[in-house]
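Hi F.,

I've been meaning to write this up properly since the lab meeting, where we talked about keeping a consistent format for the predictions we share between groups. The idea is simple: the sequence comes first, exactly as it goes in, then the structure tokens exactly as they come out, then a line or two of notes. No screenshots and no reformatting. I'm using this chain as the first example so we have something concrete to point to.
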Amino acid sequence: MDDMRPSGGAGAAAMGLASLFPPGLQAIYGECRRLYPEQPNPLQVTAIVKYWLGGPDPLDYISMYRCVGSPAQHVPEHWHYVSFGLSDLYGDNRVHEFTGQDGPSGFGFELTFRLKREAGETAPPTWPAELMQGLARYVFQSENTFCSGDHVSWHSPLDNSESRIQHMLLTEDPQLQPVQTPFGLLTFLQIVGVCTEELQAAQQWNGQGILDLLRTVHVAGGPWLITDMRRGETIFEIDPHLQQERVDKGIETDGSNLSGVSAKCAWEDLSRPPDDEDDSRSICVGSQPRRLSDKDTEQIREALRRGLEINNKPVLPPISGQRQSHDRPQSRKDSLESESSAAIVPHELVRTRQLESVHLQFNQESGTLIPLCLKGRLLHGRHFTYKSITGDTAITFVSTGVEGAFATEEHPYAAHGPWLQILLTEEFVERMLEDLEDLTAQEVPKLPKEYSWPEKKLKISILPDSVFDSPLQ
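Output, unedited:
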């Protein structure tokens, strides 16, 4: 539960009582005072029971400032929200492990949000605070950090209205500068509300490209990327040329920066008899899945978390015994480069198996991303991972240019416990794109839908959500 009240922190610090406030808190307040010297005591949403005392909300505070914008740059007046809690505020290990000044402070960032002020609005709406708490809960629970260009599929109007703004992109805040605190460095990542079509374009191409397009359209964000929940048109409806001239050409030239998704998916080994005790059909929908080893889980997590930047030599990270910390390296690469680019060292209790024939199963939403996986990732020498949201199943498609994979051209289907890797040649990818063309059509295909390549011993089924939600097939 949250409480809204004027902050005593900034004002008290300005009155010479800064020593009463934790240094991490002071550092953020100082940057906000630089930007808003006339607002020393902004309204704040405060977590009544702090996270470190067992409360549900990771953010201790969210400050809300009134920003006049910049008429010369066509930036409208808006509310500016700033979070406190993803970085290390206290330095005493109550929330974040203190690692010194040289690395990131906590997770290394705080969230911001800029919401267009409605005519006659005298106080900031508080729903963005709950939105920011929701994102912070995801970060704390998953230990996956955000960085500029990332996208968040929300599938619901951000303010629980009828708005078309139902997803988010993340970018550097245009005004708040990185802050060096006694507990490390933090940057400010701004949430930008987007429509479904804009999110899909970001997935198919990359988030930074779509953010750049949003900056050029004043009513869709403008240079400071202000979110307007009343926006009724996508940037592609406002300017139809953007899709073909910018996004489609960008996908063809650059490929996609999306390296994986959480999804409703499953796979089964068709090359084993059903009564085989070691049959990976136990991984299939409706049965008790094997558990991914911690090492497998960490490698997939790294694939989903760090695989957003372009690199010339994609490498899947080897399974290592060391758990990666939640901070990202300064140079994040799609290669997911790690300490070694050698082949994966299998977990001692789970051997890697070569499979002759496999059956992949996806729900409709996951299935529509297969062409993106093939065209935007594999044809550009990269990899793409589906990680099941209902179990430990994972499916990674790899191209022949990816090092460190346990699938090879000689054995293109290989499993490590419930993690399946599928290596596809460029020639086969081109053929699959032709055969899967209807997955990108506007009309919803009748389910179940099956695609089969008998000579490759590969079958893909698109199934209703209910199949994945049911305990029995």
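Notes:
Residues 127-142 form the longest helix (16 residues).
The first strand starts at residue 2 and ends at 6.

If this format works for you, I'll send the rest the same way.

G.
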